[in-house]
Amino acid sequence: METLMSRKLFTLSLTATLMGGTAYADTPQVAVDIAPVHSLVARVMDGVGTPDLIIQPGASPHEYSLRPSEAAALQNSDLVFWIGSDLTPWLTDTIETLAKNASVTSLLDLDGTVQLDFRESALFEVHDHDDHDDHDDHDDHDDHEDHDDHDDHDDHDDHEDHDDHDDHDDHDDHDDHDDHDDHDDHEDHDDHDDHDDHDDHDDHDDHDDHEDHDDHDGTAGHDKHDHGDHDPHAWLSPKNAMTWLNVIAGQLSAVDPDNAGAYFANAAAGRTEIESLIGEVTATLDGVRGGSFIVFHDAYQYFEMDFNFPASGAISVSDASDPSPARITEIRDRIAQQGIDCVLAEPQFNPDLIATVLDGTNAQTGILDPLGSDLEPGSSLYPELIRNLSTALASCM
Q1: CB within 8 A of 155, min separation 6: which ones?
Q2: pLDDT digits over 105-116, tens only?
Q3: What's the pLDDT tens digit per position in 290-307?
Q4: Distance in angstroms (rounded) separating the CA atoms of residues 281 and 240
Q5: HSE on the CB side for 206, CA within 13 Å?
Q6: What parts of the chain have a pLDDT lower than 70?
Q7: How far apart are CA 164 and CA 175, in angstroms?
Q8: N or C: which terminal CB in the chain sees fewer CB atoms within 10 Å?
Q9: What is the helix (H) or strand (E) element at residue 95, kind and residue range?
Q10: Is 208 helix (H, G, I), strand (E, B) or coil?
Q11: What span, in angstroms and rounded, lies between the C-alpha atoms of 101 and 78?
Q12: What angle do CA 315, 317, 323 make, to 5 degrees?
C-alpha cells in the first residue's frame, strides 16, 4: 500500500513539474534595451515572467559593448522593446542579426509617443513646445483609463492583427515576424555555439570612440553631430511611459494571449502609479520654481516639458559627445552673467567638465541620473528614477 501511494505521489509530483516547466517555457522571452524601459516591461510582466536587460545599469547607451549573455538574450527573444536607433544606432544591426525572429518595437516611433526635436545650442530660452510631434492621437488617451474589458484598445482588440504590425512602419521589413511558429520551442536556438564568443559584438570598436563626433566646427553652442531626427530620451516623460505601458501589454498579449488579462491589469495599475507620481513630483518642484540650472548633457527636455521646469542650458548635446571649447565658454558666461543656481553632473560621464564649468562661480552642484544607474533593475526602478530627478533638482536649488 505504501509503495502504491509513493508511486502515486511521485507521478503527481512529476506531472506538476512537467506542467510547471511547460508554463515557464510558454512565457515570452523579452529583451529590453535600457533599465527605465526594462522597468516598464517588468511592471507589465509582473507575476508572469521577467524581461532581460541588454544595457546594464551604469553604462551609457550611447556607446556599449554587448556581453555574450546579452547577445544570447537578444537571440532567444520573442519580443524586443527598445527606444530606437536615435538612442542606440549601434544596436540596430545587432537586433536585425540576432533577434531576426523576434517582434521588435521601437517605442520612440510609436503613434502616441511625444517626440521632441534635438536642441543643438548650448543655451536654452523659454520653452516653446508647440512644434513637438505628438503623433496626433496622443492627446486623447482618456479612454485608456479603464482596460478591464479592453474595448477601447483599437490597436489591441483583435490580437491577430498584431502579426501584421500595421502601425509600426519601421518594422515593415520584419516579414518573418508575422508568425512566431518557430518561437514556441526555440529548437534552433538551443545550441549557441556560434554565438558563445560573439566576437563581433563584444568589441564595438567603431562605437566606443564615436570617431564621427570628434570633429566639431567650433561654433559656439552649435557643435555638429550625427544623430537621428528626435531627442531619444523620451522615457523621461511620464506621459510617454503611460502610453508605452498600453503598447507593451498589447504586444505581450499578442504572443501570449493566455496572460492578456494579467498584462493589461498590470499596465492599468502601472498607469495609476505614474499618475500619482506626477502629482508627487509636481509638488516637489513647486517649491523651487524660478530657480535656474544647467545639465551635463541635454537629456531632460521631456521631463522639463512634462513638469514645466525648463533648464537654462546643457554642457553637452543630447548624444553626450564632448563639447567644444567654445560651447564650454558659452556655458561659463551664462552661469556668471545670470547667476545660475545649480550645475548638474551625471554618474556616467567625466566629472572634470563640471569642475571646469564651475570654476570661479558660486553655482551649486548636484547629480542627475537619467538611467537610474544606482537603482536595482525591476518594476520599481522607473518611478524611483523620476522621483530622484525631482529631489535632486530641489536639493541643488
Answers
A1: 161, 167, 247, 250
A2: 999 999 999 999
A3: 999 999 889 999 999 999
A4: 16
A5: 7
A6: 1-25, 126-228, 318-320
A7: 8
A8: N
A9: helix 91-98
A10: helix
A11: 7
A12: 55
